[in-house]
Specification:
This protein has 437 residues and is mainly alpha-helical. It folds into two domains: 49-153, Periplasmic binding protein-like II (D-Maltodextrin-Binding Protein, domain 2, 3-Layer(aba) Sandwich), CATH 3.40.190; 176-436, no CATH class. It has helices spanning 2-15, 18-43, 45-48, 82-90, 121-142, 147-153, 176-210, 213-218, 223-259, 263-266, 268-283, 286-298, 301-329, 337-352, 354-359, 364-371, 376-383, 390-418, 428-436, and strands at 52-58, 73-77, 96-100, 112-114, 162-164, 171-173. The strands form two sheets. Strands 2-1-3-4 form a four-stranded mixed sheet, with helices on one face. It has a two-stranded antiparallel sheet with strand order 5-6. The radius of gyration is 31 Å and the shape is elongated. The protein starts with a helix and ends with a helix.
Length: 437
């Protein structure tokens, strides 16, 4: 009953804050802007870009006529002296001059472009790509090799991994790159949310300790009940915020897609259609379309979502208990750095090892990291899209929640002593003494 009262207090206190309402209602607008702004900029790129004329002084005569002009970049080939061409750039006749020096024994591989204003990277990239193609073509001809034959001999080899189930023998295609990106995205979500809301628990306790409110509260509530109420209450605040973000983002993007002229560019269905069309063209019609649906069907989103929620909750509870203990031990947020840094490093370890986990999700390192409770929420999210035995998930979750309850009990012991300590610098050694009391 007391835990419920504390949960209600923590929840209502935070959702009524002006900062909570401001962030909750502004964040969906920011997310929607991230979706629509690139499309709007692309559609109106002509208003931001400017036409430029680039003179090409090619002493080797190898690249004459090779640079193709675009809507914004016009290439003109000149025979003027380089110094004269530079002066014409200064006078505004040309926006830039591309100088390709002649070489005696080899084909030219270096070029210089002179201008009074910064030349866009897209222009230099276009020049570099054109010169590379011309030089490679000339080298093949000099070696007596027909470039068309080399181009025709280019072959793409596809190796499709297929996982076989140990239980029923079913076979399922595996798409490692997509599975890794999905796992990494879930891992990052867990990392940022735990860090954000876990530190909110810590700040809330420090604030109450500074205002001496906690002395009144602790006189009628057990430390374990107080901490559990705070952790669950703030977790509900975060869940409420995410649900509002998701709902409002969907509503805003739907309305914007209806009224903005770029709806055919940014709408999800159109983007997927364009991607499917590109893959179909590259892979021969229906084969590309089939591959897209194979990738989607290869991922069990339902099971991944359930596992994500369980590890998200377990990871949040565990780290919130640790942050709460730190908040009870110190007097101000400045003193928390020595304690927060090791906790943050524990969260970062799975992301540092993400490449190793994705490359070998069934290796001993990956399995151990998904069993250790401090790394299991993030490490398991990296492994689950590749397929993890149910028994490993069950064991990992049991260890995670048992560790959470244990740390909550230990943190409550820190609460009991730390909340009444003022004006004293606390060390790890001191905290361990409080736990032993």
């Amino acid at each position: 009953m007391k835990i419920g009262i504390i949960i209600q207090r923590e929840y209502l206190t935070r959702v009524r804050k002006r900062s909570f309402l401001l962030i909750t209602f502004l964040a969906p607008l920011f997310f929607a802007a991230l979706m629509f702004l690139p499309a709007l900029l692309m559609e109106n790129s002509e208003k931001f870009d400017q036409k430029r004329t680039i003179a090409v002084r090619d002493e080797s005569s190898m690249f004459v006529g090779k640079f193709e002009s675009t809507d914004f970049n016009t290439f003109i080939y000149i025979d003027n002296d380089l110094d004269e061409a530079k002066n014409m750039v200064k006078e505004g006749v040309y926006d830039g001059v591309l100088y390709i020096p002649a070489t005696m024994l080899t084909v030219p591989t270096n070029a210089e472009i002179y201008s009074t204003k910064q030349i866009p990277m897209s222009v230099t990239s276009h020049i570099r790509s054109t010169m590379k193609n011309v030089v490679e073509h000339q080298k093949l001809l000099a070696s007596g090799i027909d470039p068309d034959i080399v181009k025709a001999s280019a072959t793409t080899i596809n190796v499709q991994p297929i996982r076989m189930s140990d239980e029923d023998g079913k076979e399922k295609k595996s798409y490692g790159e997509f599975e890794f990106l999905l796992g990494m995205a879930l891992c990052l979500i867990i990392y940022f949310v735990i860090l954000l809301f876990g530190q909110q628990v810590m700040r809330g306790i420090i604030e109450e300790k500074t205002n001496r409110i906690i002395e009144v509260i602790i006189s009628s509530v057990k430390p374990f009940e107080l901490m559990m109420g705070k952790i669950i209450g703030i977790a509900l605040v975060g869940l409420t915020q995410f649900l509002l973000w998701a709902t409002m983002t969907i509503i805003i993007t739907s309305v914007a897609a209806t009224f903005l002229p770029t709806q055919d560019i940014v709408s999800t269905g159109t983007v997927m259609s364009e991607q499917i069309a590109e893959m179909s063209a590259d892979n021969g019609g229906n084969e590309g379309l089939k591959e897209v649906f194979d990738i989607i069907n290869s991922i069990n989103f339902k099971d991944i979502l359930w596992c994500f929620l369980l590890y998200f909750i377990g990871g949040y509870f565990l780290y919130s208990a640790m942050f709460a203990a730190i908040g009870a031990a110190v007097d101000n947020e400045t003193d928390t750095q020595q304690f927060v840094t090791p906790i943050t490093l524990l969260l970062i370890i799975p992301m540092v090892c993400s490449g190793l986990i994705a490359n070998a999700p069934d290796s001993p390192l990956s399995i151990w990291m998904s069993m250790i409770p401090f790394t299991s929420p993030a490490a398991m999210m990296l492994r689950i899209p590749f397929g993890v035995p149910i028994w490993q998930i069950a064991v990992s979750l049991c260890i995670l929640f048992i560790t959470f309850i244990t740390f909550t009990w230990l943190a409550a012991k820190v609460y009991r002593t730390g909340i009444l300590m003022y004006g004293k610098k606390v060390s790890w050694k001191e905290i361990f003494k409080w736990i032993k009391y």
